[in-house]
Amino acid sequence: MDDKAPRPSGGSGPSGTTFVRMIRKQTPQPRWGGRRYTRARLSLSDVKRRWVSRFGVFFLYCLTFLAVTPLLGIFIYIVNKGIPGLNRDFFVSLPKPVGETGGGMGNAIVGSGILVSLTSIIGVPWGILLGVYLSEYASSRLARWLRQCIDQLSSIPSIVIGLFAYAMIVVWTKHFSAWAGTFALLIILVPIVARTTEEILKLVPQHIREAGLALGIPRWNVTLFIVLKGVRGGVMTGVILGIARIMGETAPLIFTAFNNQYGFSGLNQPTASLPVQLYTYAISPFEEWHQQAWTGALVLVGIVLALNVISRILFKKSEVRRD
Amino acid sequence: MTSSENSNVILEADKIHAWFGSHEAVKGVSLSAVMGTVTALIGPSGCGKSTFIRTLNRLHEEIPHTRVEGQVILEGKNIYERGVDPVGVRRKIGMVFQKPNPFPSMSIFENVAAGLRLAGISKRSLLAEVVEQSLKQAALFEEVKDKLKAPGTSLSGGQQQRLCIARALAVKPPVLLMDEPTSALDPISTAKIEELVMELKKDVTVVMVTHNMQQAARISDKTAFFLMGELIEWGDTSQVFTTPKVEKTEQYITGRFG
Predict the structure, then answer these.
(1) What number is the ipTM of this complex?
(2) Going from the N-terminus, what domains does chain A have, and what CATH number goes with each?
(3) Residue A19, pLDDT above cutoff 80
(4) Which of A241, B39, B161, B214 lies 20 to 30 Å from B83, alpha-carbon distance?
């Protein structure tokens, strides 16, 4: 037990035990090292302090455990419920009418893919440029005002965004469409990407920008190829987290992209998506559809989880490179 | 100043005033630098020497709510004239900063090549040649020649500062401004940079801010003493340090204030 504790090899100087005590007095001890010696030296208040500290740490452990339990619970439950319906058909087939067995969510998976890709293609560059503008170009007053607006925008409930998109696009074009869904998702994605980009750009020290300017590099070049490039990992993290978020959005799509049982039939047509399909199935009274909904939930959670993990890895990589 | 010296003046500041908001940090400083010399700017913290040096490459104006008045004549042309592009000015006047600041997530090679690359030069062989030449000029080539692809930030502080010098030299500026280039470095790295500056003055005119008076005495040809935004005394380094004309200069140099 005391193997690691410092021990004199004898000889001259103070006797062994005294020497050990002298050292113990001034050096922090390994946790399991010198109990036998230190305990005897503890005063009552020390003992009390130690127990209060132990209790505090235990309490924090409990809180942490409580906080992650739901995550584990959801995950285990969904995996349990979802696995039985997981097969090739689920990914490639269209939904079957009630009463027929089999069928899948091919329409919803393709639809989600299209909605999310379309939104990302438009929204990611838009959000990044907006973030760059906020951090590098806007005068401080304008930037503060814009930032306020964007923050307010991201706190609007998504169902309201869905209704807004319905009123703006669906009422105008007189039908549900992938475009309307994309419009609603953009309102969610752009603020997220813009704000994370802005925050990350602010981490770049001012003197890096000055170094670029002092080299005779035009400002927009400094911004894009030195500042933004330097933190691309962090920006990508924000982008992926934003995409993960819109992947799971249901409310904005219910009145906009709606649903489509027949597979993808054009951007001007109603389009299915995983969350909406899941919702439709989950509130239905049919046992087969419930199974499909659980499997859909599993696939959705899997995709979102994968995106989050990828963003983590990217961010870590960029951290390493920055040091 | 004799007329032969006068004709070699490459950079001349004429009554430069610089403001941060309503605070006047530099109050009418006139100073000139002769080609192939090192000019040291000394003075206590907050005396405006860094602000002054930043007006010489029009970097001061990049800070919001700042203003500059006066003229800076570079090779016979006023860089504050209407219609002069600051980007072009900064290609001719390089700058090295207090803290080594290599570009993040760029390799050593990319760092040195950045100035040329972002000016539109992409010919690989030319870039490689300039990078090697600049690193040699900055006395860094031998240390990094086998790891040009390593991140610039992986180098030690002193090496990073020499990398920044190489980066500034790569665009071949006739003038190099240095804003306390050694204040973040250890004595050995400092000695290397000082040696380098004395070597460099063959090719570039150096204007350098320093807090270290021994450094100014060791490597500069001319010394300018700043106090409270004003130029108090300016002359040959040996004269300023041995027989200063103004009492304030003498007091500062002998360490009685500052």
Answers:
(1) 0.88
(2) 1-41 (no CATH), 88-322 (1.10.3720.10)
(3) no
(4) B39
